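Q: Predict the assembly, please.
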Amino acid sequence: MNVVVCVKQVPDTSDPDVEVHIDSSGKGVDESKFSFVINDADNYAVEEAIPLKEKHEGEVTVVNIGPEAANQVVRMALAKGGDQAIRLDDERFAFSDITATARLLASAIGDLEFDIVMTGCIASDDGYSAVGVTLAQMLDLPHAAMVKSVEVIGDNKLKVGRELEGGLLEMLEIETPCVLTIQTGINEPRYASFKGIRAASKKEIKVMDLEATGLSEDQVGEAGSTAVMVEYSVPVVGELAEILEGDAAETSVKLSGILKEKGLV
Amino acid sequence: MNIEHGTFVEKYDLLGCIQCGRCTGGCPVTVRTDLNVRLFVYETVDDDRLEALSEKHEIWDCTTCNNCALRCPKGLDPFEVLLGLRSMQVEEGNIEPTAISALESVFNNGNPWGKPRALRCNWMEDIEGVEKVRILEKGEKADVLIHTCCTACYDPRIIPLARNLVRVMEKAGVDYGFIGEEETDCGSEVRRLGEEGLFEMLDEDNTELFDAYDSGRIVCLSPHCYNTFKNECENIKTPVLHYTELVAEIIREGKLELTGEIDSKVVYHDPCYLGKKNKVFDEPRYILGRIPGIELMEFNQSREISLCCEGGGGKMWVESESKEQRLSETRILDAKEMGADIVAVACPFCLLTLEDALKAKGFDEEMRVADILELLGESI
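A: Predicted assembly structure:
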């Protein structure tokens, strides 16, 4: 069973001390002070792919759109058990929206032999949650989104569980080849040791520019996008919002006072 | 997992063990966990058993306090066997999620706390009486190069230690400087979590980094960094000191006057990596003795037999399964019984674990835990 896993390198904004500011263009976020990690949901997708390949024979191909620095997350996925990788890297890919991103991924994946394409169900930076299903549409394949369980039940058939609202799990049968967008919590991602990452640097990362994708300039980047970023803005503080001032000790006292006063605790 | 034949026997000199039991007899965590280090030393002689042994949860109970090594009549380091087993699990990728986060953060950010490198120097702002903390340019000369350590850069409870050290350096007129944002994790806890490859990378990075400055001595805030740079990074040629050694020296030379009175009974808790591992026992006591008003007391278990706080050995990220009383709580109860007002420490991990224990026991109104740097800050 061959699995393709799409991984994105994203800023690590999980720490409360990390401040996110709009950059000078107004259309992006200042990334100069961020550190970068694999997108959380993609990390689970990698972990879901590896046992499938081990149990049912086959290969895992890691696909990424990003600059050379994104090799960090690609190598980590290769160290965990990926066999080879493709990185789509070209300045002309910048500002690609969901459609252009999915088109780029489809151009790299379309020629591969695969049974399942896995993506994370959401990217922690833009939060669109849409690339996986758009990719399925472009590849003309069935898909299941927010997948919390995967079981192989036949030569060309999977049983997958989709997470629904209220904690319900929708069980579906789906034919391969297919696209699954993987929800966090589906497994426990393993650790990629430094020695493992170093050993994985011997595995091939094929770099594809615009020409290699076979796409034209107007199919990628802003020109190839159906949605164009106009501007980012900080929400205006509403009349009912109260911003607590002071250090952690002071604000926590104020907050507990408010919660008690409103009868919430 | 491929284990080369005889790996552990040679690496840890296992055939030197006479199974006398002094290691297990002195192991502080045996009161609350099933860890039997003597048994691991015995069983890891058999290569075929290594994989099964590496899967035992007890290997994560060891705090690497060095007690077993100190007591071994054959000069072995029994606990290192447990680190070898941990490294097998690391290579399998099969470790606690909390440890994964810490190690990935060291790889990505140079610290185990998930904090961006860009925020590493935020602690340096607005220090009382200090115009600007000196960050050295590459190649710049300074008598003392201070390695802050990740916990002192980012943990709000530990940041005051670094800030007080700067105040002490300024007051004493020491020619000091910091590396700045490029400073990176020392690798102490990385190695103790079994991540040998990442430790090797940090060893190389730190050696290269220290070489880039013209400093007379490297001074560490934490005994863990101190031990690593002094004993484990073999190519660091600059002498490495713990801050208590430097401060004791400048007090002796008459460069630092301690005038502020701290009218308290103080008991000093020897951090394992300062005391048991590096035999720095007297300098911390000397400093405390020079602070006016302090009445210095001694734990029953002090110096070479000091009780471990369970903060080292990667234990900040891997919790024991045991629900028995923590050693840090035992320590706090001892201090309470002695009538101590302050438990003084010289290690960020000891400060965090003992203060947690103090709060858990509900003694935070009548007692406190303080690092010597905080007491110095109150006294200068």
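The helical segments of chain A are 40-56, 71-80, 98-109, 131-139, 194-200, 210-213, 248-261. Chain A touches chain B at residues 12, 14-15, 17-18, 32-37, 72, 80, 188-196, 198, 248 (CB under 8 Å).
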